[in-house]
Design brief:
Helix content is 38%, strand content 21%. The chain has nine helices and eleven strands.
Length: 332
């Protein structure tokens, strides 16, 4: 399906959780205004999970989100990947410089996961352990890589993915926006085009740390994105809600509805060219004519046989022939 045949629906929600007093997560949904101005993408999803003493984490995540949206919206390159990379880099500089201006904000930082969708193309820029996923056909695929201590341990084979979900070191991130004057940013394009029905899910670890991939895939596939956001957060809270929970979602839909044209089974035609295959109604007259012709032939053969035997046959023999003709009539 071409990009011109897709539209994007979005939804997002955030919750403080059950154990935190404040919400250090921030998020944004940005959609091109349709004014005719050229933008690098049609839709932008951003989720940031702040860290730092006092309210420093909240300040860091809010500043990062605002910087990413502002820089991306005003980017003039037309390249979503480079626009995202530059926007996150600017966010890092602004958060870091602001942390140095106030003692109570020193050392603050934030994760940052930003996803841009342009038609059927997706690009992302990512720092930290918030995540972006692709949900397709009821299956969830993580498209970002965690910058965390437990992710490194999993990669080295020292712990399993399941162990990482409960490891006491799971909150230790190895990269964050704003902590230093520069940061290494993962910026990539999705290696395949999006199709109608695809759902993009971006979330903080308050969500993915409490739910399995199967649970997220099922709930994210809900026909209503708003309801999906609410049910995802509700389940994370049911599991204890130990952290702030944020989710932002986008779904690609075809002009004719949410189902992708490619998912419709292809039915081969019954006949080639412009000829239509004969219907049952068309076949009926032809069948009747063939039956009549066969019966006429049989009658003719009976008459010839009768002549050959001659008039010398007895009345009983004539009745026998008549009974044979009656059998033919019964066949008809």
């Amino acid at each position: 399906m071409t990009s011109t045949h897709l539209r994007t629906a979005t939804a997002a929600a955030t919750d403080v959780g059950r154990r935190r007093h404040g919400n250090e997560d921030s998020h944004a949904l940005w959609v091109a205004d349709g004014s005719g101005r050229t933008h690098a993408a049609d839709t932008l999803l951003v989720v940031c999970d702040g860290m730092g003493g006092s309210n420093a984490g909240e300040v860091a995540s809010r500043m990062a989100v605002e910087a990413v949206v502002r820089e991306f919206e005003t980017d003039a390159t037309g390249d979503a990947l480079e626009a995202l990379r530059r926007a996150v880099d600017v966010a890092n500089t602004e958060v870091h410089e602001h942390s140095r201006s106030r003692q109570d904000l020193q050392g603050m930082g934030t994760t940052c996961t930003a996803v841009a969708i342009h038609g059927d193309a997706l690009a992302f820029a990512h720092v930290g352990d918030s995540r972006a996923y692709l949900v397709r056909g009821g299956k969830l695929t993580q498209i970002t890589h965690d910058h965390s201590l437990v992710a490194q341990l999993v990669a080295r084979g020292q712990i399993t993915r399941e162990d990482a979900r409960h490891d006491p070191r799971r909150n230790v991130v190895t990269r964050s926006v704003g902590v230093g004057p520069a940061v290494e940013i993962d910026a990539e394009r999705l290696g395949e085009p999006l199709v109608s029905g695809d759902t993009i899910l971006v979330c903080s670890d308050g969500l993915h740390g409490q739910l399995s991939d199967e649970e997220m895939a099922k709930l994210a596939s809900d026909g209503s994105l708003d309801r999906a956001c609410r049910t995802l957060i509700a389940l994370a809270n049911e599991r204890g809600g130990p952290d702030n929970i944020t989710v932002a979602m986008a779904r690609l839909e075809g002009e004719g509805g949410p189902a992708d044209v490619a998912d419709t089974p292809h039915v081969a035609p019954h006949a080639t060219g412009t000829e239509a295959a004969p219907t049952d109604a068309a076949r009926a007259p032809s069948l009747t004519l063939r039956v009549l012709a066969a019966l006429a032939l049989l009658i003719a053969l009976s008459v010839i046989a009768w002549v050959m035997w001659g008039n010398s046959r007895t009345r009983a023999e004539s009745r026998t022939t008549g009974s044979r003709e009656g059998a033919l009539v019964a066949v008809r």
